[in-house]
User: What shape does this take?
Amino acid sequence: MKSNLFGKISIIAVTLALLVGCGTAPVRNVDSAMIPGEVSISNVEKAIVRAGSGLGWMMSKKSDGHILGKLALREHLAVVDITFDKKSYSIKYVNSSNLKYSGGKIHTNYNGWIENLEKAINIQLSIL
Assistant: This one.
């Protein structure tokens, strides 16, 4: 009897852990992240494109100081606006598909992708 109860509790615990892992959270945006040192806007753009491309993002220049980033993984798609100048950059959610976006919340994987993109951009900028 005790082992049967333990088995049921184990199944419930695993199910809850899986549900939490597939949850949603507020959309992560990066607002005015500072760029260290003196760099040209051209070098900032190159660093952002290198960082995103290295993580599988498709980076498209829209105008000076504006890049559109798209990440397609399996059946998921995330689209972000990256705006920048010589002093700072920002990453803002534009849209997505199959990421449970609703009311300013999104699948938690999206936030991880944005965090990784931010880290990669910071690494590329530090190399300049």
About this structure: Strands lie at 24-26, 30-34, 58-63, 66-73, 76-84, 88-97, 105-107.
